[in-house]
Specification:
- The chain is rod-shaped, with a radius of gyration of 57 Å.
- The C terminus is likely disordered.
- Helix 4 packs across helix 6.
- Strands 6, 7, 8 and 9 form a four-stranded antiparallel β-sheet that branches. It has a three-stranded antiparallel β-sheet with strand order 3-2-5, covered by helices on one side.
- It has three domains: 71 residues, no CATH class; 110 residues, Tetrahydropterin Synthase, Chain A; 32 residues, no CATH class.
- By secondary structure, it is α+β, with helices and mostly antiparallel strands.
């Protein structure tokens, strides 16, 4: 019986040892493999020493318990600053920016450099101080109107942040893809000035519209009068032409014989008492009497 017990104990021990060895083997195998997903690169660390060579995405081997591979995100990433950033415009107006979001990406070839040279790079790579400084420097070059125009200020801030990062880390390490500024406001005093200016502008535009309306009305009335005057003048011309043409026709139709006939038709049969004639030497005046007619 004791021999049977010893044999069973021996088998149990071997099984336990086998299981332990198998578990250790699995652990070793798992520790020897690192899979880097798409959009990431790996940084190989051996006893705390960072390798300059970047580990590509995919299946990679490493020395278990000696080496570790840290994943670095090379995709586009957003960092949003919740604090309000104050600045001044070209005209020294106080302006406040809030909801500033910077979209950036880390160069895959620079992953190891970033990991080894930037402390807590996930939070400190694109810092709020750096973005705030870029906002302040750009704002000083813009008018109050331009500083609140996202199409103007956002590209300028993007270029300024990129230049600061290139100066800090070197060109091609961090790429700024976009800068979004959700809100830009002025202090209350300036807002009141803007409101007054808008009211003045509205009043000016209203007056301009009224002036233009009055001018157009006067021009319209003048045009009506001119049109009427032209019409009256044209009517007079037409009437005069018609009268002239009628006189011309009448003149052309009155011959000498017709005129004599007209005179005869109008003669009442009475002779004039005096006849004045003319001769080469002298004028002759005759008194016509009924005796002469006889």
């Amino acid at each position: 019986m004791e021999r049977v017990k010893d044999a069973n104990s021996s088998k149990m021990g071997k099984m336990i040892v086998g299981i332990i060895v198998a578990v250790l083997a699995v652990i070793v195998i798992i520790s020897s493999v690192a899979i880097i997903p798409t959009g990431y690169t790996g940084v190989r660390v051996t006893f705390g020493q960072v390798s300059d060579a970047v580990v590509p995405n995919g299946f990679n081997l490493k020395i278990p318990f000696v080496q570790t591979i840290i994943q670095v995100n090379n995709k586009q990433q957003d960092i949003t600053f919740t604090n309000t950033i104050s600045a001044e415009t070209e005209e020294r107006n106080e302006v406040y920016f809030s909801g500033v979001t910077v979209t950036y990406s880390i160069s895959a070839s620079k992953s190891s450099w970033i990991y080894s040279h930037v402390s807590d790079y996930k939070n400190n790579l694109v810092s709020e101080n750096l973005v705030g400084s870029a906002l302040k420097s750009v704002s000083k070059t813009l008018t109050p109107t331009d500083v609140t125009s996202r199409t103007i200020i956002e590209p300028l801030v993007k270029d300024s942040v990129q230049a600061s990062l290139d100066e800090k880390y070197g060109p091609g390490v961090v790429m700024i893809n976009k800068v979004v500024i959700s809100n830009a406001t002025f202090d209350e005093e300036y807002n009141q000035k803007i409101a007054q200016k808008q009211q003045a502008q509205m009043a000016y535009e209203t007056q301009q519209i009224e002036n233009q309306t009055a001018i157009e009305k006067a021009e319209a009335e003048a045009q009506v009068k001119l049109t009427q005057a032209n019409a009256d003048a044209q009517a007079l011309v037409i009437e005069a032409q018609a009268e002239a043409e009628a006189n011309q026709l009448l003149t052309e139709s009155l011959s000498e014989e017709v005129l004599k006939n007209k005179e005869i038709e109008k003669w009442d049969g009475e002779l004039p008492d005096v006849y004045v004639g003319s001769s080469e030497d002298s004028n002759t005046m005759l008194e016509i009497t009924s005796d002469l007619l006889d």
